[in-house]
Amino acid sequence: MANSVLSSSFSLCTKILMRPQITRLFSASSAFRASVQVGDKLPSTVLFEHNPGEKVVTTELFGKGKHVIFGVPGAFTPGCSKTHLPGYVQEHGSLTKSKGIQSIACISVNDPFVMDAWGKAHDADGKIRMLADIEGEFTKAIGLIIDLTAVLGNHRSKRYAMVVEDGVVKSLHVEPDGTGLTCSLASNILEDL
Fold first, then answer.
1. Catalytic residue list
2. Residues 28 and 82 in one domain
3. Residues 6+ apart with CB under 8 A from 88
4. Which of 11, 113, 147, 189 has a Cα at 20 to 30 A from 133?
């Protein structure tokens, strides 16, 4: 009996201890991928709009229709405030009326109060959905997290822009250095469409 108990305990321990290793070694999870790719479905995560009580599920928001998502390292930072966000605010009409985009969303690893204030400061209300990725869950899930602790205090989003149709990435522009202002601008997304 002692041997059967020991054997059962060993089997249980083996399953508990060994299973995560096997799962990690053979899983096709985003942990092993550099970043989201064209043709990938967006992950289902929760973002926040305006305040912590207003949750937005990514697969519900971007699951149907054509959308533009752009990610920024931080609200109120110079490149994001002088160029990136204003470019999408300015091109809102061209993207939505001429190109059939249903929504444009800006995502940053910030809190929702900061994102809301930043959107208001740049007249984004009614044009750009200012979404907070509070703990970086969405950004990590798409593999676009960058360590900017030295400058912004924590891990943030690489700068990127993508077109998503029915929840699938159709085009993707990730800044080569993660923070520059070249390929992820609104003008490049307009060219894609």
1. 80
2. no
3. 68, 70, 95, 104, 106, 124, 127, 128, 186
4. 189
For the cut 90, the answer to whether the pLDDT of residue 35 exceeds it is: no
Backbone angles phi, psi at 168, to 5 degrees: -115, 135
Question: Helix, strand, coil proportions of the chain in percent (round to 5)?
Answer: 40, 25, 35
Are both 103 and 26 inside the same structural domain? no
Q: Any idea which of 18-32, 57-71, 102-116, 151-165 has the lowest mean pLDDT?
A: 18-32
Coil, helix or strand at residue 4 = helix
Query: Do the beta carbons of residue 41 and residue 168 sit within 8 Å?
Result: yes
Residues 45 and 27 placed together within one structural domain of the fold: no
Residue type, position 162, single letter: M
Contact (CB, 8 A) for 118 and 75? yes
Q: Which domain holds residue 10?
A: 1-32
The tokens describing 8, both together, are 């059962």
Provide the domain count of the chain: 2
> Of how many residues is the chain composed?
193
| Same domain membership, residue 155 and residue 91 | yes
pLDDT digits (tens, 9 = 90+) for 155-175: 999 999 999 999 999 999 999
**pTM score, whole prediction:** 0.81
